[in-house]
Amino acid sequence: MKFTAFKPALAAALLAAGLGSTAAHAEPFYAGANLGAPRYEDGIQGSNGHGDGVSGKVFGGYQVTPNIAFEAGYADLGRVAGDAGHVKAHGEYLDAVGLAPITDQWTLLGRLGVAHIDVDTPNADTSGNGLKLGAGAQYAITRDVSLRGEWERYRPDVFGDKPNIDQFTVGVRYGF
User: Structural domains in the chain?
Assistant: First the structure.
């Protein structure tokens, strides 16, 4: 075989090495927490509407490139009152996060992932898996500290249905 047959493979390897080197940007590991309010768009056991109290999440992630990160976390999706009593939900998630820098300080966020959600109602408790998606923005205060504002939608398969559970949050992200 001639060397020319290896040129595409060499080009792909150099490109992959170049993409890998972009991951060496400042502080690829990060953690954070958000607080907010839940909204149960669809009824769960007869309960829907704006949630009571506070919802939130804690998360950790790894930013692979300036435009891609993977994030895992725990979300408390608050509770909502219904005719039969309060419905509460919480769970774990794993997301791929797309980052689109607008300026040196502002970045748009988009996420797609999976979640495992536990739902507690007065009549029964259940858990289910489902898709999760979201969008938001991030503002860098310093190189390591950013503020985030996000909307996320969880669609767990619970009680034979796939209700939309929304969460609107603001929080902080810390790179290390």
Answer: 27-175 (2.40.160.20)
